C-alpha cells in the first residue's frame, strides 16, 4: 500500500514537472527549446549564460511580489525611499559595489541602470555637465576607435564635440595620438574603454593620465566604460585598474547581464558626489524629488536581483568565477597556439580573438566578426564567460581541427 502511494505520488510530481515545462502555446515551447539548445554554444558575446536567479523567481512568485507594480523613479541614495519602490535595496546594492571600485561610502552616488549603455549615457551626460558647470566651457570628448560603439552614438545624441583617438594593434588608445589631437583650451571628457569591444583591450589609464597631467589648467573628467570587464576585474589581481582612487576617474558603467548573469539588460552606474553635486537641478514638484538622472521610471526588480546575487553568490564565488574565466581564456589561447592557429589575447582579458574560421563554425558557436588588416583581415572572437568551460572549449577545438 505504502509503495503504491509513493509510486502514485512520484508519478504525480513527474507529470507536474512535465506540465510546468509546457506553456500551453506550441510556438512558445518550440522557441524555448531551440533557445536552450543555442545557449550551449553561445560563445561570441559577453553574456554569462549560467543565470543564477531560479531561487529569486520562486520567491518572486510565491510571495506575490510578481503581482505588484513597483517603480524606482527618483534618487535611491536618499534617506527617504519612495513607497512602491525597491530603492532601499538599490541603495544597498550601490553601497556594496562602491568599495570594490574604491569609492568611499560618503563620496559616492549611483543607480542601478537599464544597461551598460544607460550607464555610459549617464557618465557622458554627467561628465559634460560637470565640466561645463565648473568651467563655463563646453568640453571635447576623447574616445578610442576601438571603444564600444554606444559611446559615439551617445555623444551624437548629446550633441558633443568628439575626437576619435587611434588605438594600437591590441586595441588600446595610443597616448601620443591623444596628445596630437588634444585641445587644452577646452575641458577634456575622457572615455576610457575597459574592454574594447572586439579585442578586449583596456586603455592604459596611467600613460593617458600622464599626457593629461601636462596641461594642469585643463579640467578633466574621466568616465570608464567597463560594461563587461568592470564586473570581474574587482575580483582579480588586476583590481587596481578599476580603482577610482588610483586611476582618478569620476564615473563608471557596468552591465548586470554580462559577468553577473542577470537574465535581462541591467547595470550599475557609480560616480563621485562632486560629480552629482555639479549637475543641473531638476526639482520636480509632482514627484517631490530632484531628478538628476536621465530616466523617470526606473526598474524596481533589477535592483532586487542584484541584491539577491550579493546575498546568494557574493564576493568569494565571484572571485572563483573570475579566476575560472581567466584560466579558461588562457586555456583556449594555449589550445589554439598548440595548433599554430593565429590568435591573440590581452593579459587581463577573457576575450580571445583569432583568424576567422569557416562560416559553419562561426554560425554554430555564434562567433562575433571582426576585421583588421594588421592581423591578416577577417577575425572572430570568443568571450570566455562562466559557461564557456574547458570541456566546451575542447569541443570548439575539435570542430576547428576537422
Ligand atoms: C557590452 C558593452 C557595452 C554595452 O552595454 P549594454 O549593457 O549591452 O548596453 C558598452 N561598452 C562595453 C565595453 C561593452 O562591453
From TrEMBL:
GO terms for molecular function: carboxy-lyase activity; pyridoxal phosphate binding; transaminase activity. It comes from the Bacteria. Its cofactor is pyridoxal 5'-phosphate. The modification N6-(pyridoxal phosphate)lysine is found at residue 258. Residues 1-20 form the signal peptide. InterPro entries: Group_II_Decarboxylase, PyrdxlP-dep_de-COase, PyrdxlP-dep_Trfase, PyrdxlP-dep_Trfase_major, PyrdxlP-dep_Trfase_small. Belongs to the group II decarboxylase family. This is Aminotransferase class V-fold PLP-dependent enzyme. It comes from Pseudoprevotella muciniphila.
Amino acid at each position: 500500500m505504502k509503495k503504491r502511494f509513493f509510486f502514485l505520488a512520484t508519478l504525480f510530481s513527474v507529470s507536474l514537472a512535465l506540465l510546468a515545462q509546457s506553456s500551453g502555446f506550441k510556438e512558445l515551447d518550440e522557441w524555448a527549446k531551440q533557445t536552450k539548445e543555442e545557449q550551449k554554444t553561445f560563445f561570441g558575446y559577453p553574456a554569462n549564460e549560467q543565470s543564477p536567479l531560479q531561487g529569486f523567481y520562486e520567491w518572486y512568485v510565491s510571495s506575490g511580489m510578481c503581482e505588484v507594480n513597483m517603480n524606482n523613479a527618483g534618487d535611491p541614495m536618499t534617506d527617504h525611499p519612495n513607497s512602491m519602490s525597491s530603492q532601499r535595496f538599490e541603495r544597498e546594492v550601490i553601497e556594496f559595489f562602491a568599495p570594490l571600485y574604491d569609492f568611499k561610502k560618503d563620496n559616492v552616488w549611483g543607480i542601478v541602470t537599464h544597461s551598460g549603455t544607460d550607464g555610459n549615457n549617464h557618465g557622458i551626460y554627467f561628465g559634460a555637465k560637470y565640466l561645463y558647470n565648473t568651467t563655463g566651457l563646453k568640453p571635447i570628448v576623447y574616445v578610442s576607435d576601438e571603444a564600444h560603439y554606444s559611446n559615439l552614438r551617445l555623444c551624437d545624441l548629446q550633441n558633443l564635440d568628439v575626437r576619435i583617438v587611434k588605438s594600437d594593434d591590441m586595441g588600446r588608445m595610443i597616448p601620443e595620438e591623444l596628445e596630437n589631437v588634444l585641445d587644452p583650451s577646452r575641458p577634456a571628457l575622457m572615455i576610457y574603454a575597459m574592454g574594447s569591444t572586439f579585442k578586449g583591450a583596456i586603455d592604459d589609464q596611467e600613460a593617458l593620465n600622464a599626457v593629461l597631467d601636462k596641461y594642469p589648467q585643463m579640467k578633466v573628467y574621466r568616465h570608464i566604460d567597463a560594461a563587461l570587464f568592470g564586473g570581474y576585474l574587482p575580483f582579480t589581481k588586476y583590481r587596481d585598474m578599476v580603482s577610482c582612487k588610483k586611476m582618478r576617474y569620476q564615473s563608471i558603467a557596468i552591465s548586470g547581464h554580462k559577468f553577473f548573469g542577470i537574465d535581462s539588460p541591467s547595470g550599475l552606474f557609480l560616480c563621485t558626489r562632486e560629480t552629482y553635486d555639479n549637475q543641473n537641478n531638476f526639482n520636480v514638484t509632482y514627484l517631490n524629488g530632484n531628478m538628476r538622472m536621465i530616466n523617470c521610471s526606473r526598474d524596481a526588480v533589477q535592483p532586487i536581483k542584484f541584491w539577491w546575487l550579493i546575498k546568494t553568490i557574493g564576493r568569494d564565488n565571484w572571485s572563483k568565477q573570475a579566476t575560472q574565466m581567466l584560466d579558461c581564456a588562457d586555456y583556449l589561447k594555449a589550445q589554439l597556439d598548440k595548433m599554430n592557429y593565429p590568435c591573440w589575447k590581452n593579459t587581463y582579458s577573457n576575450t580571445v580573438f583569432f583568424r576567422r574560421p569557416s562560416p559553419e563554425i562561426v554560425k554554430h558557436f555564434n562567433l562575433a566578426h571582426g576585421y583588421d588588416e594588421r592581423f591578416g583581415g577577417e577575425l572572430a572572437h570568443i568571450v570566455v564567460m562562466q559557461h564557456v568551460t574547458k570541456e566546451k572549449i575542447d569541443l570548439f577545438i575539435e570542430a576547428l581541427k576537422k
